[in-house]
Amino acid sequence: MQKPGLPKGTRDFGPVQMARRNFILNTIKDTFQLFGYQQIETPAMENLSTLTGKYGDEGDQLLFKILNSGDYLKKVDSNDLEAGSQATLNKVSEKGLRYDLTVPFARFVVMNRNDLTFPFKRFQIQPVWRADRPQKGRYREFYQCDADVVGTDSLVCEAEIILMIRRVFAKLGLKDFDIKVNNRKILTGISEAIGEAGKEGPLCVAIDKLDKIGWEKVQEELAERGFASQSVEKLAPLVNLKADLKGKISFLKEFLAQSETGLKGVAEFEEMLQILSQMGENLEHVDFDIMLARGLSYYTGAIFEVKVNGVSIGSVSGGGRYDNLTGVFGLPDVSGVGFSFGVDRLYDVLEELDLFPEESLASTKILLIHFDQKGFEYGLKVLSQLRKEGIKAEIYPDLAKVKKQFDFASKKGIPFVGICGDQEIESDTLALKNIESGNQESISIEEVVSLLK
Amino acid sequence: MQKPGLPKGTRDFGPVQMARRNFILNTIKDTFQLFGYQQIETPAMENLSTLTGKYGDEGDQLLFKILNSGDYLKKVDSNDLEAGSQATLNKVSEKGLRYDLTVPFARFVVMNRNDLTFPFKRFQIQPVWRADRPQKGRYREFYQCDADVVGTDSLVCEAEIILMIRRVFAKLGLKDFDIKVNNRKILTGISEAIGEAGKEGPLCVAIDKLDKIGWEKVQEELAERGFASQSVEKLAPLVNLKADLKGKISFLKEFLAQSETGLKGVAEFEEMLQILSQMGENLEHVDFDIMLARGLSYYTGAIFEVKVNGVSIGSVSGGGRYDNLTGVFGLPDVSGVGFSFGVDRLYDVLEELDLFPEESLASTKILLIHFDQKGFEYGLKVLSQLRKEGIKAEIYPDLAKVKKQFDFASKKGIPFVGICGDQEIESDTLALKNIESGNQESISIEEVVSLLK
C-alpha cells in the first residue's frame, strides 16, 4: 500500500492554520474594500506566451509548466532530444502556472480595457507557484495578496496605501512597525547629483548594505562598481544625514537642486504628506527612507516597504508606483500604484508575537454532551434551537463515554460544553461548563443563547 | 506586440462575478461553520502517485500533469519516443493538478490521522482542474465546495446534511427545490428482491431514464442488460408506486422483506427522519427517491441529490455515505458522509432566477464628488471620517469634470454620491444623492453616517 506524501515545497493547511490565515486575510480584505478596492480572480494556468519573458531568465526557469494533454510527445523527434529540454519546451507545453499576480492582472486589464471603469482599484488574493529550491520559509506554492489602482496619477492612492497598511496592522494587533517610503525619482536625482546619472541601481544595491557592512566597505563596493571617488565623496553627507522627516526634505531640496527629476520626487513625496494632512491623518509609522530601493527596475514613483521591528522576519509588505504595467501586452501608458502583503510572513510574525486571537481557533462555540439516548435526544432539540439563534454548535454524534466527549471538545478548542443530564432535561436547562475556567452552572436555553451570542 | 488570451476552458472573474460568487461561497461557509465544520486547504499540486488510479482510466487522461523542473528530458531516449507519451509519462512528470477535493482529503486524513480529532468535520473550497473538452458550462478550472465528516456512523450527520442544504438554499433565496434522498442499501435490496442480486448498477442506469423514455423502453433496456423478464416484472409495482414518504417506507418494508441489507437501508432512512423530528425539524423539500443512484460504486449508505425546479440546470448539490475513503492509502475502515455544492451551477441558477442581491454588487457605498481643489480637500477630510465609521467610501482621486465622476459612480454601481460644493463646505455638510432615485439633500456628516451604516 502506498504511503502518501506531499510534493516538495507544498503544504496542507489544517483547521487551526486556516482559521489563523483567514483572520489575516479577512482583515486585509475588509480594509481593501473599505477603500473601494474590488476583488478579481484569474485562472491558475496562463498561456506560456503570457508568462515567459516577464520575470527574467531565472523566472522563466522557475515557472511550473503544464504538459500538453493527450499525445504530448507527438511533435518531439530524436533531433529534439539532442536539442535539449529548453529548446523542445514549446513542443510539449503551452501553459504554465501563474508566477505572481501582477502579470495576470496586466493581462486582465488589457483584455477587459473596454469594460473596466478607470481608475480601476482591484485586489487579488490567490496562490502562486514557483519551482524554487524549497527552504525554511520559502515554498513552491504560496498566497499573494495584491492591491493596485490603475489609470490615475493621483497621489491620493499613495496616501491611501499608507492608511491601509496602518489599518491592517492595527487590526492585527501589530504596533511596532515602520512604513518606509521613498520615491524612485529621488534616487534618480541622487545619482544625477553625484555625477553618476543612470546608476541608481548599483548605488542602491551598495547602500542597502550600509547597516550590515558599514560606510567604509560600502565605499569600497561603490568604487568596484565604477563610481568615481569624487561621486562617492558627494554621497557622504547623505549617508551621514541625521534628520527628521522635514530635515530630510529640506536637505534634499538643496542636494537635488540641479536635478529636475529629483525635485519632482521630493514634490510628490510632499504632496502625499499634504493629502494625509488634509485627511486629518498623522504621520505615525511613516519613515522617509531616502535609500529605499525595492524593485527598482520596475517602479517609477513612490516606493514602499513595511518592516516589523523586534521580530526575526523583517519585511512583510511593500509596493510602489509604476508607469507601464501593460505595455508588454500592447497597451502603453497605464500608470498605477500597488502594494502587497506577505501572508506567510505576517503569519509567522503574528505567531512569534503571539497575536492570534483565541476565538479565531475555535469556530464551534458549544458542544452538547449526553449520558444516554434520552440525553442525546434532548441534545438534538437544544442543538437545533441554538443554531437557529446563529450559535455555532455541535452535538457529539454517537453515544459515547462522557470523557471521550469532553476530550473531543477540548481537542477541537470548543470553549463551552452543554451537559444534557436528567435534571437538565426535566428543567429544560443546560449545565453549561466553561472548559477553561471549569465553572459550571445550570441555566435556561435562553440564558445560554444570550451568553454565547 | 502579442495579444494576450486565456487558456481554453479557463475564466477570469471580474468584480461583479466575484461579488456574486462570494455571496454564494460565504453563505455556504457560514452554514458549514454553524454546523461545526472546519476549513482546510490542500496544495494545487499532488504527486501523480496520489492521483493516478483514483478516477478510472478516463480520469487519469484528464489529469493536468506538471512538467518536471529543469532538464525534464534527461531520462528520455529515442526508445521512449517510440514507446509513446503514456509509457514515457513517469520520466517527464511526477506531479499533477488536483482533480477533485476528495482524494486530497483522503490523503490529508491519512497523513494527519494521529493529530486529527475524530469525528472530523472538514470543509474545503478550492479550484480543481480537468483537461476536459471545454463546452458551455464545463470548464477546465472550477471550484468545488465539499463538506465531509469522517470517523462516525451516526445518522445525525445525514440529518444535518439536509438541514445545511435547506439553510443554504433559504439564505440564497431559493424556494422551489427537492432534496432527493435514497440509500444504497435499498438499491442493493431491490436487486436482491427481484432476483438480480449485485446488479443495482445497470438497474439504476436504466431506471434513471424513466422520465425521458418511459417504462416500456426501460423494460427493453433492462432486457438488453441481461435482466430476466420475471425480474423486470417484479420491478413494475415499484416503478408504478404512487405514494407519499410513509407509503413508500411501508411498501419497501414488504418489498424488501427477504433482504437484510434492504431492510437495513430502510431502517437507516427512518432513523434519519427520526433524528430530524427530534431536532424539531419538518420534512420540507425532502423527497424519498427510491431510484436515486448517484455515484453508486462509491456510496454505501445514504445518497443525496438536490434539484432546483423550474430552471434549465437541475442538480446543484449531492453526496452520500461511503465506507472506505482512505483504504487506497493504507488506512481501512474510515467511514464518512459528505456532500458538495456546485458553485458554478448555483451561480447560473441564481442568475436565471435573478436572485443576486443588489448590495453584493457594489461594495463601495458612497463616492465623494468635487468641483475644484477646495472641494477635493474637503472631500478628503470627509472621506477619512466616513471610513473611520466603517463606511466603504471613495473619493474620485483626480480633479475631473463632475459628469465623469458621476459616470464613475454609476458604472461601479456605487449607490450614493456625496457632493462637496461650496455650500456644503461652508455648512460642514454633504449633498447626498441617491443615484437610483435621484433624490438629493444636504445633510450633516453624522446624518450621512447613520444613513449609510
Automatic annotation (TrEMBL), chains A, B:
According to UniProt, the reaction catalysed is: tRNA(His) + L-histidine + ATP = L-histidyl-tRNA(His) + AMP + diphosphate + H(+)
* UniProt keyword Ligase, yes or no: yes
Q: How does it assemble?
A: Homodimer.
Supply the name of the protein. Histidine--tRNA ligase
Q: What class of enzyme is it?
A: ligase
Where does the record place it? Cytoplasm
Q: HAMAP family, alphabetically?
A: His_tRNA_synth
Listed PANTHER family: HISTIDINE--TRNA LIGASE (PTHR11476:SF7), HISTIDYL-TRNA SYNTHETASE (PTHR11476)
Q: Which NCBIfam families match?
A: hisS (TIGR00442)
Q: Per its record, what are the GO molecular function terms? A: histidine-tRNA ligase activity
State whether keyword Protein biosynthesis applies: yes
